[in-house]
Amino acid sequence: MSRKPITRRDFLKVASAAPLAGALIPSFKGAPPAPSAAESKVRVVLVRDPSPLGAGGAPPAEVVQKMLDDAVRALLGETDVVKAWKSLIRPDDVVGIKTNAWRYIPTTVEVEQAIKRRVMDAGVGEDRIAIDDRGVLRDPVFQKATALVNARPMRTHHWSGVGSLIKNYIMFTPQPAAWHGDTCADLAAIWELPAVKGKTRLNVLVMFTPLFHSVGPHNYAKDYVWEYKGLIVSRDPVAADATGLRIIQAKRKEHFGDDRPLPMTPHHITLADTRHHLGTSDPARIELVKLGFDEGILI
Amino acid sequence: MSDPESPDARRLASYIPVSAGPWLSEADQVYDAEGIFEYIDGAGEVYRSYNMGLLVARRFHKDGKPDIVVDAFDMGSSEDAFGVFTHDLDGESASIGQGSVYKSGLLSFWKDRYFLSVYAEEETPETKALVLDLGRRIAAAIPGTGVEPALLKVLPSGGLDRRGVRFFHVHSVLNYHYFVAEENILLLDRTTDAVLAGYEGEGGGAMRLLAVAYADGPAASRALASFCRAYMPDAGDGRTVRTENGKWTSARSGAEILAVVFDAPTEQRAQGLLESVLSLAGARATGPAR
To answer: Residue A82 and residue B31: Cα distance in Å, rounded?
Structure first.
């Protein structure tokens, strides 16, 4: 079987995200080297459960709690889930759980409450925990937050390629639209703003019912949603997003029968790594731990 | 949200029925180009890239049934109404307005300077019929007829995939339809008109023709130089190159027009198409396309 050649369009797709942005076509020398054995990898946990999803798009609450607990234990190498959370959250923290309230595929109450329960188990009083999306700049708990947990679903997006964990912090900016330039290339810079910088303790990318293709003004059609029944959990938002993106792209290949790229390039994920150094986007530098059932796992 | 009582909003709202069978409408939501993000988040950038003026959104509800949403955009010009319609052509023609597609509960069409989306949150035989009926009633209520962008006249007709023609302004939308480069090497912006079309290539495979109208000749020449420097530095003065997939890419400018052919089966086919474009551009009438 013949292999499709790498064209200059392929090269120009990655050139601006490469460490030497602007490199010319003749300097193309193929894929970057694999990390050395001594180079540490970023851990990402993908957990899936086959339980049926409820009307809101999530598995039953107790299943979600177990998925989150299993993922956090595996992520931190700790058998006791409360101990694991205590290594993330201090009792004197003020904690904002940044959720996503998109009408069609929200973070889900089940995920929000599973996180909140463990934050409380870590010793934080309920009055020092808030769950919010669009109101974070006005929320008194978020205004005083010393720790953030970032939780949202991944979906394709008409402008940024995908709605990602990185993008979820756009609501911490007074003018979200100001970050839309070059199809949201520099969303990772939001993570340098005082409201969020250095505060994120955990990232939870919800993959219960991802959207793998966008249509219409509302970006949504039921035909392009599938039941993946997963959560991706990591300390590194870029690594979690890069992993979620691989799943979305694999689903697109399965559905469309070809390697068609996302309509808008999700380069904000790669650039979060190469330009903003927020985390790791290269799969070769990600240790992916898979838990639960693997039917239809795609990666 | 914007003022629902403004004359433009009231006119646009008047084209939308207040009921759809037993579905009743809720209060309108009206957004301008600055406020659209409140409604559809960053997806609003697509409509802003086509210079949208106003959006009237009306939701129809019936207990126990999927909602139906009408999003009516006043794009300010029929050219941009046509353009934003061509952004997503997935689906079958519904013969509504001046161009329409329907797929999976989503009807899109344009008429005059308006772009309409009628969307059932779940497609059933009942909601499909209502969506199409709403579309027909809205199209009938819009009195005017729009014109397609004049730039379409530079497209040679032989072998043209007429239904797949895209009209746009900015490079991110070009990349949406046909990825060229991450960087804006064609120097596109909201003031440039661009059209992308597919042509049958002899011997199999499709080739793409991109034509861009800049403000003036020097701007087109600068864009040509920028494109050649970034995309085909190996092409030399002939501005034609055989790319890694064995096909031909060629670029030329004339007057305010830059034209690029991608993936032509032969060098001659690429150059022939460019000559036709520039010839048509020279003969282009000042009036809009019909």
So the answer is: 47
